[in-house]
């Protein structure tokens, strides 16, 4: 498995022409972008977790039946700092970076203090987001990086915190017909409150980029949801929307903020601060998009973990939403590189099967209904919603299909009634081996598979002018465990699931698995095509008029540089006494899981950090 997971992948900076077998539809013109971890060792240091790896961008440019491939590492601040130091110096969620042992004791002290409230990484390896004319590589921190979709060049870094108070944000936003972008982030202990913030990036003004204006500057808070726990907010990877509502799941998969604040000095990663609490319920928050307020009814269901929402819509006074659920949070643990070895099949066995489930919520609860009665009257589903006391409703889902992940739909049906789910099929392993088209109406499915092949997220691209939901093609980048077989781009007829074409390239390509995503940025006709310089050469550009058809790492960035006295020296006295206090406090908390110890240490370390920063600058 080392060839698939652990080996650093090489960049393919110049476009290489793929070998096309079969025939690609003439109307398919554009660029397929992919994102995910590509580098797991820097010098003699190695990341612990697969999703900690440095982001590697890929593109497949499709024009006139030909396909060209290129790849390039995202030149994030994290990438630059690591490469220049020839070691991992920026922490990721599963890998904590520590000071160079050659640094003096005061430098180490400041490193410990800097990690009490961590500044997360800009290693944006999860998704590609479109915002107006701009494209951004995203992760689940507050940072995104603008990229050039034609050349994969890394452009400026953007911090959502400049526009909205969030420490974390999902990398799976939603887009509406007007061009607005909706997303959700977590605001941790802001003004004494922890909350989930739904924010909107308004549709851009035409020509705004030429005038140097980014629509991100107009980002606004749409609404906020108070977290049930001040210091243990829920982890989430996506959310759902309909025409009139937003669905947010506050699941019992939680980040322990106190443990995160003390993780660095205790010698553990931030991943150890993420835990599933099976004794807690899952709270289902419904936001009315018209009033920007939560609906008064309190919905909940059994404890579960959801990474991907599939779709949601409204029907006869009910809100229906489909999600891929797990019974616990073990999935993340399976991607530690120590598990991705020769015993991979044994080590990677999931403790719960990813299951497609449908929840149905009554939007208006009859106050006269009896406690315990089922409030759902739809004949099309077996999902139930049982009335409880105090305006609460307990939701029991309908099980639709077991063994699906990385779901995708025809995005024209997002928030609307729909029928088909395109997804990667998995069993008790998190690694997909098949692509499935699941029919929710008939409960039937079609499947594509090939020996030794691992498919990425399947993307649906509609045929121009299509009227049927499944009139289009499926694109998926495929890697093989057979070293003799080159990776390739697969093109399927979405209606019949027959293979139309494949485009293979003799390059190294990483697997895009759970959490990582792709996006198709496509032109819709000849005018959107890149210009060819001369026959036989790959295109050096891409579609100029791009249409988004729809497309996860953590960790801190290095402290910002500032003018300071020489190394190890301070203004107005030295930090030796304060550092002794820090070490004393650390001795009390280093091996303690006691919440009181951690809470006291958290506030103590913040006070000392503030004092140190006000008195001295240390390297």
Task: Tell the overall outline.
Answer: globular
Q: Helicity range of the residues?
A: 10-25%
| Major sheet description | 7 strands, antiparallel
Task: Quickly give the structural class.
Answer: mainly beta
Can you describe this structure in just a few lines?
Its cofactor is Fe(2+). This protein is mainly β and 619 residues long.
Topology of this structure?
Layout: E1 12-17, E2 19-22, E3 29-34, E4 37-39, E5 41-42, E6 45-46, E7 54-63, E8 66-73, H1 77-85, H2 105-114, E9 127-131, E10 134-138, E11 143-147, E12 154-159, E13 168-169, E14 174-175, E15 181-190, E16 193-201, E17 220-226, E18 240-241, E19 245-250, E20 253-255, H3 257-266, E21 274-276, E22 282-288, E23 293-294, E24 298-301, E25 305-315, E26 318-326, H4 344-347, E27 355-362, E28 384-387, E29 392-396, E30 398-402, E31 404-408, E32 420-425, E33 434-439, E34 444-449, E35 453-455, E36 459-462, E37 472-480, E38 488-493, E39 499-504, E40 518-523, E41 547-548, H5 576-589, H6 595-615
Parallel strand pairs: 24-29
Antiparallel strand pairs: 1-8, 2-39, 3-7, 3-40, 4-7, 5-6, 7-8, 9-10, 10-11, 11-12, 13-15, 14-15, 15-16, 16-17, 18-19, 19-22, 20-21, 22-23, 22-24, 25-26, 26-27, 27-30, 28-29, 31-32, 32-33, 33-34, 35-37, 36-37, 37-38, 38-39, 40-41
Helix pairs in contact: 3-6, 5-6
Cofactor: Fe(2+)
Pfam families: RPE65
InterPro entries: Carotenoid_Oase
């Amino acid at each position: 498995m080392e060839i698939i997971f652990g080996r650093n992948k090489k960049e393919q900076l110049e476009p290489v022409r793929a070998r096309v077998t079969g025939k690609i539809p003439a109307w398919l013109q554009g660029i397929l972008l992919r994102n995910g971890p590509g580098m797991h060792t820097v010098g003699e240091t190695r990341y612990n977790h697969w999703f900690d790896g440095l982001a590697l961008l890929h593109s497949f440019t499709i024009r006139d039946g030909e396909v060209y491939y290129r790849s390039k590492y995202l030149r994030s601040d994290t990438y630059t700092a690591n490469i220049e130091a020839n070691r991992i110096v920026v922490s990721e969620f599963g890998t904590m970076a520590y000071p160079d042992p050659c640094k003096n004791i005061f430098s180490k002290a400041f490193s410990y203090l800097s990690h009490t409230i961590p500044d997360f990484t800009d290693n944006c390896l999860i998704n590609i987001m479109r915002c107006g004319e701009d494209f951004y590589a995203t992760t689940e921190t507050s940072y995104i990086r603008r990229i050039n979709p034609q050349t994969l060049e890394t452009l400026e870094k953007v911090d959502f915190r400049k526009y909205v108070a969030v420490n974390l944000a999902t990398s799976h936003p939603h887009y509406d017909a007007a061009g607005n972008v909706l997303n959700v982030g977590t605001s941790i202990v802001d003004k004494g409150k922890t909350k989930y913030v739904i924010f909107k990036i308004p549709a851009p003004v035409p020509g705004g980029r030429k005038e140097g204006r980014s629509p991100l500057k107009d980002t606004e808070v749409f609404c906020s949801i108070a977290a049930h726990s001040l210091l243990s907010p829920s982890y989430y990877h996506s959310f759902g929307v309909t025409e009139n509502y937003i669905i947010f799941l506050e699941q019992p998969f939680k980040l322990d903020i106190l443990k995160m604040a003390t993780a660095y000095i205790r010698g553990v990663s931030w991943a150890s601060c993420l835990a599933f609490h099976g004794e807690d319920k899952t709270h289902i928050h419904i936001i009315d998009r018209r009033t920007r307020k939560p609906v008064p009814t309190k919905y909940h269901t059994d404890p579960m973990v959801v990474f991907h929402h599939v779709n949601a819509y409204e029907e006869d006074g009910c809100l229906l939403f489909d999600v891929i659920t797990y019974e616990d949070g073990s999935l993340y643990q399976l991607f530690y590189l120590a598990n991705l070895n020769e015993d991979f099949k044994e080590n990677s066995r999931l403790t719960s099967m990813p299951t497609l489930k449908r929840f149905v919520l009554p939007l208006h609860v009859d106050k006269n209904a009896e406690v315990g009665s089922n409030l759902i009257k739809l004949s099309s589903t077996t999902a139930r919603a049982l009335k409880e006391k105090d305006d609460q409703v307990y939701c029991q889902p309908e099980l639709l299909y077991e063994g699906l992940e990385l779901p995708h739909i025809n995005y024209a049906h997002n928030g609307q009634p729909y029928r088909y789910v395109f997804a990667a099929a998995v069993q008790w392993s998190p690694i997909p081996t098949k692509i499935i088209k699941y029919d929710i109406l008939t409960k039937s499915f079609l499947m594509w598979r090939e020996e030794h092949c691992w498919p990425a997220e399947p993307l649906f691209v509609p045929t121009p002018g299509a009227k049927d939901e499944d009139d289009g093609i499926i694109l998926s980048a495929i890697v093989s465990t057979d070293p003799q077989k080159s990776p390739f781009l697969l093109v399927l007829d979405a209606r019949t699931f027959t293979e139309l074409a494949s485009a293979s390239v003799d390059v190294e390509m990483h697997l895009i698995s759970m959490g990582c995503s792709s996006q198709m940025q496509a032109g819709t006709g000849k005018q959107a095509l890149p210009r060819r310089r001369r026959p036989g050469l790959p295109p050096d550009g891409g579609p100029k008029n791009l249409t988004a058809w729809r497309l996860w790492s953590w960790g801190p960035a290095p402290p910002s540089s500032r003018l300071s006295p020489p190394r190890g020296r301070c203004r107005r006295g030295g930090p030796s006494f304060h550092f002794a206090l820090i070490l004393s406090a650390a001795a009390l908390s280093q091996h303690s899981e006691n919440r009181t110890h951690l809470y006291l240490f958290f506030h103590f370390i913040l006070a000392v950090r503030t004092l140190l920063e006000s008195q001295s600058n240390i390297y």
